[in-house]
Amino acid sequence: MKGLQGKKSFSDVRNKNTMRQRLAATEMIVPGNIQLEPWSPGDAATHITYECAGSPFGEILVAATSKGVCYLGFTGNEPAAALRDLKRRFPFNPVSEGRSFFQTAAIRQMHATHHLIPVRLHLKGTPFQLQIWKQLLRIPFGGLTTYARLGGSTRAARAAGHAVGCNPVGFLLPCHRVICTDGSFNRYFWGTELKEKLLTWEAETAQDPGFTAPRSGVVLNKN
């Protein structure tokens, strides 16, 4: 199976034609390392622990319940703002600073992109949002999809885009790999600049001849 090796132009994420080629080259995968636990009514009062940690893409705030990671956000060097976002999403849950093995696994995966580390997510969302978030896990490292593809039709693209925008777990649920059908992108909860950085880094990494991560599923059929 051919990858992106030798196709350095694929890292030009501001070139719409390049991004459309990446879309055509992407084969969806079956995720193997991340498990999803849906939120239940009884989880409304469950305790949430959070901590800030470094990552290759800047500081992150990671939070978890006793069932899994429920939040991972980029702080933009403003941890207080990220904490407010966490509490906004979980207004009824007691929150305190601390670490669990779920958070540790998530942080390790952020730093170990060449390896798959088991991570369990505990996701609060509507049935439609959960459906879309599950689809995000099928986008391979270095690959892309569109809002229309996620939603199953052009008419459902807006609803899919809203669900993507509500994603509470950045990077691990790779909503940054979703772009518009024309190859453009300008929507990312943690900032368009960060989305561009992530897309560029993934394309460059996937093109490295030494990159063999099992998440890489981009195939280029053209010579």
Describe, in plain words, how this protein is organized in 3D.
The chain has seven helices and eight strands. The strands form three sheets. The protein has a four-stranded mixed sheet, sandwiched between helices. A two-stranded parallel sheet has the order 1-6. A hairpin with a 4-residue loop joins strand 3 and strand 4. The radius of gyration is 17 Å and the shape is globular. The chain has two domains: 106 residues, Arc Repressor Mutant, subunit A (Orthogonal Bundle), CATH 1.10.10.10; 89 residues, Methylated DNA-protein cysteine methyltransferase domain (Double Stranded RNA Binding Domain). The protein has 223 residues and is of the alpha/beta class. It is 32% helix and 15% strand. Pfam families: DNA_binding_1.
- Cα shape: globular
The major β-sheet equals:
4 strands, mixed
> How much is the average pLDDT?
88
Sheet-strand content, in percent, reads 15-25%
Fold-level CATH name of the largest domain: Arc Repressor Mutant, subunit A
Any idea what the CATH superfamily of the largest domain is called? Winged helix-like DNA-binding domain superfamily/Winged helix DNA-binding domain
Order of strands, main sheet, comes to 4-3-2-5
Number of helical runs?
7
Approximately how much helix is present in the residues?
Answer: 25-40%
How many separate domains make up the residues? 2
* Helix-strand makeup class: alpha/beta
How far apart are the termini? Answer: 13 Å
CATH architecture of the largest domain: Orthogonal Bundle
Series of H and E elements = HEEEEHEHEHEHHEH
Gyration radius over CA: 17 Å
Per CATH, the class of the largest domain reads Mainly Alpha
Low confidence ranges: 1-8, 215-223
Q: How many strand segments?
A: 8
Catalytic activity: a 6-O-methyl-2'-deoxyguanosine in DNA + L-cysteinyl-[protein] = S-methyl-L-cysteinyl-[protein] + a 2'-deoxyguanosine in DNA; a 4-O-methyl-thymidine in DNA + L-cysteinyl-[protein] = a thymidine in DNA + S-methyl-L-cysteinyl-[protein]
Organism: Niabella drilacis (strain DSM 25811 / CCM 8410 / CCUG 62505 / LMG 26954 / E90)
Protein name: O-6-methylguanine DNA methyltransferase
Keywords: DNA damage, DNA repair, Methyltransferase, Transferase
